[in-house]
Design goal:
Elements lengths: L2 E4 L9 H14 L6 H4 L7 H12 L5 H19 L6 H10 L3 E5 L4 H11 L6 E3 L12 H10 L6 E5 L2 H10 L2 E4 L12 E3 L8 H8 L1
Parallel strand pairs: 1-2, 1-4, 2-3, 4-5, 5-6
Helix pairs in contact: 1-4, 4-6
Protein name: HAD family phosphatase
InterPro entries: HAD-like_sf (IPR036412), HAD-SF_hydro_IA (IPR006439), HAD_2 (IPR041492), HAD_sf (IPR023214), PGP-like_dom2 (IPR023198)
Protein backbone atom coordinates (compact mmCIF):
# COMPACT_ATOMS: atom_id res chain seq x y z
CA UNK A 1 0.00 0.00 0.00
CA UNK A 2 1.54 3.27 -1.15
CA UNK A 3 -0.85 5.72 0.52
CA UNK A 4 -4.23 6.22 2.17
CA UNK A 5 -6.42 9.00 0.81
CA UNK A 6 -9.09 10.48 3.09
CA UNK A 7 -12.29 12.31 2.30
CA UNK A 8 -13.14 15.02 4.85
CA UNK A 9 -16.82 15.90 5.42
CA UNK A 10 -18.79 12.97 6.79
CA UNK A 11 -15.72 10.74 7.06
CA UNK A 12 -13.12 12.49 9.22
CA UNK A 13 -15.52 14.98 10.72
CA UNK A 14 -19.29 15.31 10.88
CA UNK A 15 -20.16 18.88 9.93
CA UNK A 16 -23.62 18.04 8.59
CA UNK A 17 -25.35 19.83 11.47
CA UNK A 18 -23.22 22.91 10.86
CA UNK A 19 -23.83 22.70 7.11
CA UNK A 20 -27.58 22.44 7.68
CA UNK A 21 -27.56 25.51 9.92
CA UNK A 22 -25.63 27.61 7.44
CA UNK A 23 -27.55 26.36 4.41
CA UNK A 24 -30.84 27.13 6.16
CA UNK A 25 -29.68 30.66 6.94
CA UNK A 26 -28.56 31.30 3.35
CA UNK A 27 -31.70 29.86 1.74
CA UNK A 28 -33.88 31.86 4.13
CA UNK A 29 -31.92 34.94 3.11
CA UNK A 30 -32.71 34.04 -0.51
CA UNK A 31 -36.41 33.86 0.32
CA UNK A 32 -36.80 30.07 0.39
CA UNK A 33 -37.06 27.20 2.86
CA UNK A 34 -34.58 24.37 3.49
CA UNK A 35 -35.05 20.83 4.78
CA UNK A 36 -33.17 17.52 5.11
CA UNK A 37 -34.45 16.45 1.68
CA UNK A 38 -32.56 19.37 0.15
CA UNK A 39 -29.36 18.70 2.05
CA UNK A 40 -29.37 15.09 0.86
CA UNK A 41 -29.19 16.31 -2.72
CA UNK A 42 -25.79 17.87 -2.05
CA UNK A 43 -23.92 15.18 -0.08
CA UNK A 44 -20.45 14.73 -1.55
CA UNK A 45 -21.06 17.45 -4.11
CA UNK A 46 -19.10 20.55 -5.02
CA UNK A 47 -19.35 24.10 -3.73
CA UNK A 48 -20.54 25.39 -7.12
CA UNK A 49 -23.27 22.76 -7.20
CA UNK A 50 -24.48 23.84 -3.76
CA UNK A 51 -24.78 27.47 -4.80
CA UNK A 52 -26.43 26.55 -8.10
CA UNK A 53 -28.94 24.28 -6.34
CA UNK A 54 -29.89 27.00 -3.84
CA UNK A 55 -30.46 29.56 -6.58
CA UNK A 56 -32.53 27.10 -8.63
CA UNK A 57 -34.56 26.19 -5.54
CA UNK A 58 -35.32 29.78 -4.54
CA UNK A 59 -35.27 31.35 -8.01
CA UNK A 60 -33.54 34.31 -6.40
CA UNK A 61 -31.80 36.84 -8.63
CA UNK A 62 -28.57 37.02 -6.61
CA UNK A 63 -24.95 36.84 -7.79
CA UNK A 64 -23.69 33.25 -7.23
CA UNK A 65 -20.40 34.68 -5.93
CA UNK A 66 -22.29 36.50 -3.18
CA UNK A 67 -24.23 33.39 -2.20
CA UNK A 68 -20.95 31.46 -2.06
CA UNK A 69 -19.46 34.12 0.20
CA UNK A 70 -22.45 33.90 2.54
CA UNK A 71 -21.82 30.14 2.82
CA UNK A 72 -18.09 30.62 3.40
CA UNK A 73 -18.63 33.25 6.10
CA UNK A 74 -21.16 31.10 7.93
CA UNK A 75 -19.10 27.91 7.76
CA UNK A 76 -15.78 29.47 8.67
CA UNK A 77 -17.20 31.14 11.76
CA UNK A 78 -18.63 27.84 13.07
CA UNK A 79 -16.30 25.05 11.96
CA UNK A 80 -13.31 25.49 14.24
CA UNK A 81 -15.61 25.58 17.29
CA UNK A 82 -18.37 23.12 16.33
CA UNK A 83 -16.61 20.27 14.52
CA UNK A 84 -15.03 17.25 16.20
CA UNK A 85 -13.33 14.21 14.57
CA UNK A 86 -15.45 11.14 13.87
CA UNK A 87 -14.96 8.11 16.15
CA UNK A 88 -11.79 6.25 15.19
CA UNK A 89 -10.52 8.95 12.83
CA UNK A 90 -7.59 10.21 14.89
CA UNK A 91 -6.60 6.71 16.00
CA UNK A 92 -6.45 5.58 12.37
CA UNK A 93 -4.40 8.61 11.35
CA UNK A 94 -1.96 8.04 14.20
CA UNK A 95 -1.71 4.34 13.36
CA UNK A 96 -0.87 5.13 9.75
CA UNK A 97 1.79 7.61 10.88
CA UNK A 98 3.30 5.02 13.24
CA UNK A 99 3.60 2.59 10.31
CA UNK A 100 5.06 5.20 7.98
CA UNK A 101 2.07 5.13 5.61
CA UNK A 102 1.67 8.29 3.54
CA UNK A 103 -1.65 10.12 3.63
CA UNK A 104 -3.57 12.77 1.71
CA UNK A 105 -6.80 14.66 2.27
CA UNK A 106 -9.06 14.78 -0.80
CA UNK A 107 -12.12 16.98 -0.37
CA UNK A 108 -14.67 18.78 -2.53
CA UNK A 109 -14.71 21.64 -0.04
CA UNK A 110 -12.87 24.89 -0.66
CA UNK A 111 -9.39 25.38 0.80
CA UNK A 112 -10.65 27.93 3.34
CA UNK A 113 -13.18 25.39 4.67
CA UNK A 114 -10.63 22.58 4.76
CA UNK A 115 -8.23 24.80 6.71
CA UNK A 116 -10.94 25.51 9.30
CA UNK A 117 -11.74 21.79 9.68
CA UNK A 118 -8.05 20.87 9.96
CA UNK A 119 -7.81 23.00 13.09
CA UNK A 120 -9.88 20.26 14.73
CA UNK A 121 -8.29 17.24 13.00
CA UNK A 122 -4.66 18.37 12.64
CA UNK A 123 -2.96 19.55 9.46
CA UNK A 124 0.14 17.54 10.40
CA UNK A 125 -1.63 14.27 9.63
CA UNK A 126 -1.59 14.88 5.87
CA UNK A 127 1.34 15.09 3.50
CA UNK A 128 -0.88 16.37 0.68
CA UNK A 129 -4.18 18.26 0.69
CA UNK A 130 -6.37 18.47 -2.41
CA UNK A 131 -9.42 20.76 -2.31
CA UNK A 132 -11.92 22.11 -4.81
CA UNK A 133 -9.50 24.98 -5.42
CA UNK A 134 -6.87 22.56 -6.72
CA UNK A 135 -8.83 20.79 -9.47
CA UNK A 136 -10.89 21.59 -12.54
CA UNK A 137 -13.46 18.84 -11.90
CA UNK A 138 -14.60 17.82 -8.41
CA UNK A 139 -16.06 14.48 -7.27
CA UNK A 140 -17.54 12.27 -8.77
CA UNK A 141 -14.88 12.97 -11.42
CA UNK A 142 -11.61 11.04 -10.75
CA UNK A 143 -9.44 14.18 -10.96
CA UNK A 144 -9.26 14.87 -7.19
CA UNK A 145 -7.89 11.40 -6.41
CA UNK A 146 -5.64 11.33 -9.45
CA UNK A 147 -4.25 14.71 -8.38
CA UNK A 148 -3.51 13.46 -4.86
CA UNK A 149 -1.78 10.34 -6.18
CA UNK A 150 0.22 12.47 -8.61
CA UNK A 151 1.37 14.84 -5.86
CA UNK A 152 2.46 11.84 -3.80
CA UNK A 153 4.06 10.21 -6.87
CA UNK A 154 2.22 6.95 -6.19
CA UNK A 155 0.13 4.52 -8.23
CA UNK A 156 -3.62 5.05 -7.53
CA UNK A 157 -4.06 1.28 -7.77
CA UNK A 158 -1.84 0.90 -4.72
CA UNK A 159 -3.80 3.46 -2.72
CA UNK A 160 -6.84 3.03 -0.49
CA UNK A 161 -9.43 5.81 -0.48
CA UNK A 162 -11.82 6.23 2.43
CA UNK A 163 -15.16 7.83 1.58
CA UNK A 164 -18.65 8.33 3.00
CA UNK A 165 -20.68 9.39 -0.07
CA UNK A 166 -21.63 7.85 -3.43
CA UNK A 167 -19.99 10.78 -5.25
CA UNK A 168 -16.74 10.24 -3.40
CA UNK A 169 -16.80 6.49 -3.96
CA UNK A 170 -17.40 7.05 -7.68
CA UNK A 171 -14.45 9.46 -7.85
CA UNK A 172 -12.01 7.15 -6.07
CA UNK A 173 -13.16 4.09 -8.02
CA UNK A 174 -12.77 5.88 -11.36
CA UNK A 175 -9.25 6.90 -10.31
CA UNK A 176 -8.38 3.23 -9.77
CA UNK A 177 -8.12 3.24 -5.97
CA UNK A 178 -9.27 0.52 -3.63
CA UNK A 179 -12.18 1.98 -1.68
CA UNK A 180 -13.41 1.71 1.88
CA UNK A 181 -16.86 3.25 2.23
CA UNK A 182 -18.20 4.34 5.60
CA UNK A 183 -21.71 5.50 4.62
CA UNK A 184 -23.02 8.68 6.15
CA UNK A 185 -26.27 10.30 5.02
CA UNK A 186 -26.69 8.15 1.89
CA UNK A 187 -26.42 4.33 1.64
CA UNK A 188 -23.56 2.68 -0.26
CA UNK A 189 -23.66 -0.93 -1.45
CA UNK A 190 -20.84 -3.47 -1.48
CA UNK A 191 -19.18 -3.83 -4.88
CA UNK A 192 -15.99 -5.24 -6.46
CA UNK A 193 -13.00 -3.18 -5.37
CA UNK A 194 -15.02 -1.67 -2.52
CA UNK A 195 -15.57 -2.63 1.11
CA UNK A 196 -18.37 -1.06 3.16
CA UNK A 197 -17.69 -0.63 6.88
CA UNK A 198 -19.94 0.69 9.65
CA UNK A 199 -17.31 2.99 11.20
CA UNK A 200 -13.65 4.01 11.16
CA UNK A 201 -13.44 2.21 14.50
CA UNK A 202 -13.52 -0.99 12.43
CA UNK A 203 -10.62 0.05 10.18
CA UNK A 204 -6.92 -0.28 10.96
CA UNK A 205 -3.62 -0.36 9.08
CA UNK A 206 -3.53 -4.14 8.59
CA UNK A 207 -7.07 -4.11 7.24
CA UNK A 208 -6.18 -1.42 4.70
CA UNK A 209 -2.97 -3.14 3.62
CA UNK A 210 -4.84 -6.37 3.00
CA UNK A 211 -7.02 -4.60 0.42
CA UNK A 212 -4.02 -3.86 -1.79
CA UNK A 213 -2.28 -7.23 -1.53
Amino acid sequence: MDAVLFDMDGLLVDPEGVWFEVETEVVTRLGGTWGPEHQEQLVGGSWDRTVRYMLELTRADVDPMLVGQWLIDGMESRLSADVTPMPGALDLLRGLADHGVRTALVTSSLRIIADAVLKAVGREHFEVIVTADDVTCTKPHPEPYLTAAGLLSVDPGRCVALEDSPNGVASATAAGCRVVAVPGVLPIAQAPGRVVMPSLLDVDVDFLRALVR
